[in-house]
Design a protein that fits this description.
five-stranded mixed sheet, single chain, eight-stranded mixed sheet, alpha/beta, 2 domains, D-Maltodextrin-Binding Protein, domain 2
């Protein structure tokens, strides 16, 4: 088994050798191709959990005959918007975005980020009651995120302002917003910044429904066709399984995207969102996706009903 240090070396070498460009905040990485291979464009967030998940695919630990995967890394709200245009063959999306792209994409059965009793949090500089939180303006990471959907199910009609997800905590600390809705690693670091957790929407959702909160998943273009969709799906699942089986080296690779988390916290964060549910949602996980989108539609947040379709 490769050591943690070896995983870090692999991450450095990969970034040095892969052709990489940065355009409007996006990082694109690709591997050499040949005339006999089919390129599959893959897009996901530059976060430690997604990096962990795609480690084996990005470093060629897992391969699929005849396929070459090129990777684009950018924030989830941008990915949601680009999915509306069908830009990438495979893309990470917020489940809130799925009803808007369901004609172009189906959901992969693996790669989901599911909060089992935890999820996006509302945080503030002072203790605020749940009734009061519904009366103030909250900084949110994007209107197509699942966090935004869950917030509006919790507090219909709440006033929000879109702020880049990595700026929400600093903006709340600066006093520009009384509260913020945090996602990603901020769920583990907000207390170090002196903020109070007002409510964990994953806990709230579980109390209301008895189900885990499905936050994001991987979607694949329907026009790839059933055979290619199944092949890509299997390869991505292999990448997730490889990372779980080689945790130390995959975590070392993921640390470059950990945004100020130490190794212990990064390991905890990855464990929250890359686990057995990431390999397969399970019956309750799939039911949670359907329930979330159905509730969003019935509440008038999502304008069209979702036809949840897994590959």
């Amino acid at each position: 088994m490769e050591t943690f240090q070896e995983g870090q070396r692999l991450a450095r070498d990969l970034l040095q050798t892969m052709p990489t460009t940065v355009v409007s905040g996006e990082v694109e990485q690709s591997m050499p191709s040949s005339a006999s291979t089919r390129e599959i464009t893959v897009a996901h967030s530059p976060d430690s959990d997604d990096a962990f998940m795609f480690y084996a695919l990005a470093t060629n630990k897992v391969r699929s005959a005849g396929l070459r995967f090129s990777h684009t890394l950018t924030d989830i709200e941008t990915l949601n918007r680009k999915a509306l245009e069908g830009v990438y063959d495979v893309t990470a999306i917020s489940f809130h975005a799925y009803p808007y792209i369901q004609d172009k994409y189906a959901l992969l059965p693996s790669g989901g980020s599911v909060g089992d009793g935890y999820g996006p949090m509302i945080v503030a500089k002072r203790a605020i009651s749940q009734s009061e939180i519904k009366q103030i303006r909250i900084a949110v990471p994007g209107t197509m995120t699942t966090a935004f959907l869950a917030l509006n199910l919790f507090a219909p009609g709440i006033e929000t302002a879109v702020v880049p997800f990595d700026q929400i905590i600093p903006e709340v600390i600066a006093g520009n917003y009384e509260a913020g809705l945090i996602i990603h690693e901020g769920q583990l670091t907000f207390d170090k910044a002196g903020l109070h957790r007002i409510i964990d929407l994953g806990k709230w959702w579980q109390k209301v429904t008895g189900l885990p909160l499905p936050l994001g998943g991987n979607a694949i273009r329907r026009d790839l066709g059933p055979e290619l969709m199944a092949s890509v799906s299997g390869t991505i699942k292999e990448s997730i399984q490889y990372a779980l089986d080689h945790r130390e080296e995959a975590l070392a690779y993921a640390m470059q995207f950990a945004r100020d988390l130490d190794t212990q916290l990064a390991d905890r964060f990855v464990g929250m969102y890359v686990n057995e549910r990431t390999l397969d949602y399970g019956p309750d996980g799939r039911e949670a996706v359907r329930r979330l989108l159905d509730m969003g539609h019935k509440a008038g947040i999502i304008p069209r009903p979702a036809q949840v379709d897994f590959v």
